[in-house]
Amino acid sequence: MKNITKIVVSLIVSLAISTSAFAGALTVTGSAKATYNTLSGTANGDNGIGVSNELGFGASGELDNGWTWNYAMALDPDETAAGGSALNDDAKLTLATPYGSFAVCASDCGLSAAGDFNANAYAWITDTGYAEGKAEPVNISTYSNVQYHTPAGLLPFGIVGKIGYATSGDTSLYSSNRNNITPSSTVGATTMYRIEAAPIDGLAVTASYAEQDGAEVVGLSDEQKSESGAVSAKYSAGSFTVGLGRSLVAPRAADGTAAGATTVEYYTNNNISVGFVVNDSLSVSFSNETSEPSYQTSTTVGYDQDSTSIQAAYTMGGMTIALARTDYENVGYVNNADVTETILSVSMAF
After folding, report:
1. pLDDT band at 83 (very low <50, low <70, confident <90, very high)
2. For the whole model, what pTM was predicted?
3. Three-class DSSP category at 37
4. Start-end of H helices in the chain
5. Under a CB-based contact definition with an 8 Å cutoff, are residues 244 and 272 in contact?
6. How far apart are CA 264 and CA 267, in angstroms?
7. Selection from 36, 121, 33 nearest residue 343 by Cα
8. Measured on CA atoms in the order 78, 83, 85, 86, is the torsion positive or negative?
9. SS3 for 33?
10. Structural domains of the chain ordered from first start
11. What SS3 state is found at 308?
12. What is residue 101's predicted lDDT score, i.e. its pLDDT?
């Protein structure tokens, strides 16, 4: 009986060891960052103090044929009293093969090139805590989607192609095996493309395009379907980095939409960002973004939204202190709606 027990125990231990060789490794990541934020101008509200509260969980492994897989999910509480409910978001499962990568994503895996010009010392100025109302291109990460990426090194000049498809305009995050999704009343399926290239040392060029089907309403078709595209280029040489970006956004116009004075036909965004590394510890940057609305009625007077930011970041040991001051003019494309935002950030590396 003892021998049988020993044999069973040995088999269980052997199976556990054999299985662990193919099991994925689990990781937990996060950021230790605190910020102090002030607003002045037409914006109202108290100054804000924030501490990072999001954790990322990841798992990875290798199949017996050499293919690798990665899974990631974020734990992100609501911004409500006492921290709010703990929400799972930004989930993705990726399979890397010699033939390219395949991914299934929920609220993740963005393909937009709109922000790739950014060379700021702290952050992309239209992606901070303040909602300035600038119209940006559609990003497929808004929806649950599937993607395919070509293998690196397959095409010349470092070209990589990516394509994503979202079956529905619904933005809810569902667990596996979810079905019978309620159709969106405004947006159907989304298809998005992205091209990345590095034609010379120091230069990165990206472009993206997204188109969306209209709502699944019988007998109706959109006056204008949602389309948007962006192209960015960023070049680094020595201590300098210069980024340029341009994007066009044509918002959806529902069936029967009148060419009213407030109906925007498309937005044109032009962006520039310059970064300079002063030394191993200090970096500074300047950036400017303009967004011009074009209305369906040519006589409509439009007001360009303009955002200008000066930023600096200083690293001391494992601590980085950053300061960003941004002036927003004509927030939400409203004349004289001007706001100044100042952010002081302290982050720790770990």
Report:
1. low
2. 0.85
3. strand
4. 2-20
5. yes
6. 8
7. 36
8. positive
9. strand
10. 25-176+183-348 (2.40.160.10)
11. strand
12. 97
